[in-house]
Amino acid sequence: RYYAYKKLDGNYHISNKLSIEDDYDEISPQLKGKVKSFQRRFTNPVVSYAVGAYHRENRGQELMQRDDYDAAGVMSLLQDRHTRCVASMRNIGMVAGGLISSQATASWLYDYDKNLIWHTEGPCPEIQLFKPLSLGYRRTCPESEGVKRWKHNNLLFRVVLRDYAANKDKLSDLRAQYQTRLFELSGAAGSPEELHNQAQSLNSAYIEEGLKLVVQGPFRGGVQFRRYWRKQNKALLEKEECDEMKGLYRQFLE
Questions:
Q1: Residue 13's pLDDT is what?
Q2: Beta-strand (E) ranges in 36-161?
Q3: Taking the model in full, what pTM does it have?
Q4: Which residues contact 47 (CB under 8 A, 6 or more apart)?
Q5: Which pLDDT score, from 0 to 100, does residue 135 have?
Q6: Which residues of the chain have pLDDT under 50?
Q7: Angle, alpha carbons 177-183-187 (nearest 5°)
Q8: Residues 168-177: tens digit of each pLDDT
């Protein structure tokens, strides 16, 4: 029912919590003269602390002191995992598996210079490729194709989780090579449809090669992390209706 807003003239960062204090340009008429800090009035500090919102906000503000971000720079910000823990909600690049768990379904950014959306279509931007998508693209394939792409991206992520540090390192060079090719593609592709199709082709090749590199052995990590992801993988297999995906889950996740 209530609002506060302020105009931004540069970089700014929020993280799943209210961030406007007394620096608003306007506030709800009902609150004028009654509320100084919008954040303090409407934030539950215990919940925000428990889910790592303050830490992500502070880390994002620290990283965004720069004013020369290009697309690659924003991607690196979204990938940030400064705690060095895999499953910590204090990371901007969140991965689930801790006592309090949540993670991003996907990551994306908008490049105003090129009028392109860069999107992962899968969790964990440290693992996924950011693919370019033109705003002029008109989807011609059924929605199920997008869901299928997400599932394949998610499969690679789930396999990497078995030994996150080692697998991320194994993928590092391959991912960098393919991301470079996608940057080059974004400046050379023809129509929006061609850009989309070629980007997805590169992503499919990356997933295929990546699955050959990563270790598929037993889970490494803390007891809670291993228990959480075994349960999630079991649920993933039980709910899947596509025989092709079920086969891949059994091959790589069981």
A1: 87
A2: 108-111, 116-119, 131-134
A3: 0.91
A4: none
A5: 84
A6: none
A7: 140
A8: 999 999 999 9
Residue with tokens 């964990």: 124
DSSP letters, 152-167, are HHHHHHHHHGGGHHHH
d(CA 72, CA 114): 13
Q: How many residues does the chain have?
A: 254
Q: What letter represents residue 149's amino acid?
A: R
Q: What's the first-to-final CA gap in the chain, in angstroms? A: 48
Q: Are the C-beta atoms of residues 155 and 248 closer than 8 Å to each other?
A: yes
CA dihedral (73, 77, 83, 86) positive or negative: negative
Q: To which residue do tokens 């004028």 refer?
A: 32
Q: What whole-number distance in Å separates Cα of residue 134 and Cα of residue 24?
A: 34
The answer to whether residues 130 and 174 touch, using CB atoms and an 8 Å cutoff, is no
How far apart CA 30 and CA 28 sit, in angstroms, is 5
The pLDDT tens digits for 155-165 are 999 999 999 99
